[in-house]
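Why does residue order matter? Because the sequence determines the fold. Keep that principle in mind as you read this record.
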Amino acid sequence: MALRYRIARAVLGGGLYALAASAHATHAPILDPVHGGTVVTVPGVGLSPPAAVNGFNPLLISSAFDQQAAGLLYQPLVWVTRRFHINKTLSIARRITVSPGHRIFTVTLWRHWRWSDGVPVTTADVAYTYRMIQRLGPQFANYGVGGIPTDVTSFQVLGPYRLRITLKSPVNPHWFILNGLALLTPLPAAAWRHVSITGLYDHLADPRFFRIVDGPFRLVSFVAGRYVTFGPNHRFTGPDKPYLHRLVMRFLHSPESIFFGLKTGKIQIADLPHKLFPGRRTLRGFRERTVGPVWGFNYLGFDYANPAIAFVHDARVRVAMMHAIRQRLLIRVQYYGQGVRDYGPIPPRPPTYLSPLARHLEHTGAYDPRLARRLLRAAGWRRGADGIREKGGHRLAFTALLPPGQVRGPTLIKDMLAKVGIDMRLREKPFNEIVAMTQGPDATKWDAIYLAWGLSVYPSARNIFGCGGANNFYHYCSRRMDALLDAVPTASGKGAIYRYEDYFIKTQPLLVLPGQRHVIEARADIHGLKRTYSSIGGFEPQYLWIGRRDR
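Structure:
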C-alpha cells in the first residue's frame, strides 16, 4: 500500500496488523475474482471512526479521511509496503540513487505511467508538486516533513524521466526517501499549472477538476455532507486494476447509524463500533477481520499557549496524568479487549522502532496513582474542599474536546484523573469543528483535544513536536526536544530515535493513550479485504470484489 500522511484524524485509529477472520455466515470459496458490482462503505474503515470527506487535492488536505479518498486518485512517487520497504512496481519512481555523501538523490521514473487523458507521467508532474509545496509553505499540511522543501538546496529536472535533489547536509537516506520523497506525489502539471492557489481551494471538492488522474479510481460524484462515489480509472496503467464498478463512501457519524447501516444493508463494510460489540451476533451474512493498531498514536493533547491551563508546562503534572490512567482497564472497557498499551510517539505494532523503555512499559504498564499523587504534591498542587487540587487560586481543571460518539473512553479517563485530584470536563464537537477550533484564528481558545495522529513511515515528528512545527497546533516548545528531533534525520541506526522516544515518554508532551484494534464487518460475499486494509493504515479498494453467485 502507499503510505499517506494522516493529520489530526478523529479518535481513535486502527490499521491492519492481526488478521484474525471469523464468519457469521458460511459460503463456498470463490477462487477467481470477478468484475462489477457496487460496494458501499464509510471513510476511515480500519483507521478511525468515520467522518466526512471534504476535499481531494493532496496539496491542500490534512485529515485522514480526505487523504484516504485522494489516495485513490493519485499514484505515489514512492509506494511503501506494510514492512516499510518500497514496492518498485507500484511506485512512479523506478530507481533512486544516493550519492556517497548522502546529499544528492537522483530519481528515475518508470516510462509506462499515464494520466487518464493519455499524457505520460513525467518529472514535470513531480516538479509541479515540489514547486507548489514551496509556494504553499506552512499551508501544506506536511511542510518540512522529510526535509521537503526546507532542507533542499536544488531541485533539478534532468529530463522527462530523471530528476535530482540536493540537500543542504548529509542525511540518513532511509529517512529522506520514506519521509521526504514519499511526499512528492506527481500531480497533473499540464492541467493544473495555470490554476492559482485560490483556484485550487475553490475546486477542492469539484469532481470536474479531478477528471485527470493516474490512480486506480476516478471521482464520479460528490455531495457535501452525504457521500462520495468513485469508479474505476479504465486507463490506469499500473497493475491490479479495480474489480468494482462503483465504490461509495457514505458519511455516517454516530456508532448507532453505522450499526444500523450494516444491519439494513445501507452499507456493506464498516468498523463495528466498540460500544455496540454486544450486538455483533445480530449481524447476519457478514464476516469479520480484526485489524490494528494503525501506524500512529491516540492522545489527549493540550494547548500550551492557553494561559488558563498553564499547569501543562510542568512535566510533573503531565507525567502524573500518565500514571493516573489505567490503560488496561481502558482497553477492556472501551475496546472490549481489542487494544494495546502505548505511552510514546511511536506505535508498538509493528515494534520496528520501539526503544527498550517503550517495550518495557508496554509489557508492565505505567499505572501508579500513588506516584501520580506524589508528583502533583511535589509540583505544589493541594487538594481542595471538593477533592480537586488547587495552586495559587487556580484549580487543576481543563475541558477536553472530543468527536461525537467517543465519550466512553474520555469518561473513564475523567474518573481516573479525578481520583488523583484533576478535573477533566468533556465537550463533544463535530470533527470538522474541532479542527477549526484548534487550527484556526481562535486556536488558543481551547484546553485539550482527544484525537489521534498518523505518522510518517520513518517516525520522526519534527513537524508535530518541534518548536514552530507546521503541525504543532499545541504550541509545545522544548529546546531539548528540538535537539533530539534534529538528530533523527542524520543519525544512522536507531539510537537517535530511541533517545527522542524515551525523552517523550518521560515528559509526555501529549498524553498518549492505548492503540486499539478494529473489527471490520464486511458482507460475506465481498472478497479481498486482506489486501485492502494494511498494517500501517492503508486503504486499497482496487482489491475488493463481489462473488458472482451472491450478486
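The first strand starts at residue 9 and ends at 10.
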